[in-house]
Amino acid sequence: MIIDPIADLLTRLRNAYLSRIREVSMPFSRLKSDILKILKKNNYVLDYEVKEEGVKKFLVVKLNDVRVTKYIPTFNRISKPGQRIYISSTDIKKSRNGKWIYIVSTPKGVITWYEARSLNVGWELMCEIF
Asked: Comparing C-alpha atoms, which of 83, 130, 72, 129 is closest to residue 104?
């Protein structure tokens, strides 16, 4: 049983990048799928797909080739199950040179912080990627 599925997702991605694995598999959840959609849009992963084996669903994530890009992204979990971090749209700092993204959970769904800032809604600060 996985207590924190978002931390599990980020740890699997981090470990796969560090060991230079091109593809990683993990159990499916809609929240993980939403986070991977954001990571794909911001070019942190190449692609992801949902595969089914019987009644179980899996996410298969294809990662960028580290030998070509020479860049390993850093994944940090901020809001944890034991300590949720909520923030308003005006309190977050801007990312450095547009390289960082914060993934946040809002009433509008899981989106990046700059989309939430433009919608002017408060959010739970889930993780940061840089």
From this structure: 129
The pTM of the full predicted model, rounded to 2 decimals, is 0.91
The CATH code of the domain that includes 34 is 3.30.1370.30
Distance CA 81, CA 64 (A): 29
**Number of domains forming the structure of the chain:** 2
Q: Where are the beta strands (DSSP E) in the chain?
A: 23-27, 45-53, 56-63, 75-77, 86-87, 101-106, 109-112, 123-129
Q: To 5 degrees, how large is the angle CA 56–CA 82–CA 120?
A: 85
Q: Find the domain containing 26 and state its range.
A: 5-69
Same domain, 81 and 50: no
Q: Which strands form 56-63's sheet, in the order they lie side by side?
A: 23-27, 56-63, 45-53
The pLDDT tens digits for 50-74 are: 999 999 999 999 998 877 777 889 9
Q: Do residue 40 and residue 65 come from a single domain? A: yes
